[in-house]
Amino acid sequence: xxxxxxxxxxxxxxxxxxxxxxxxxxxxxxxxxxxxxxxxxxxxxxxxxxxxxxxxxxxxxxxxxxxxxxxxxxxxx
Length: 77
What we know:
Elements: H1 2-13, H2 22-38, H3 65-76
């Protein structure tokens, strides 16, 4: 199917088809290639980092992991 569509496009865009401006098609091709080259991005697109959950109270960041685990164990029992 893609080949048939491509062949049809070539038949319409080739010089000699009455009522079709091949200079306009050529200008569109050159302009499209030039625009793609000028607007290209040298760095790959990356998703932004996910937002971090609210860490809780301001002093929670100063505790060690072991201290937080002990607190969680106390709350659970």
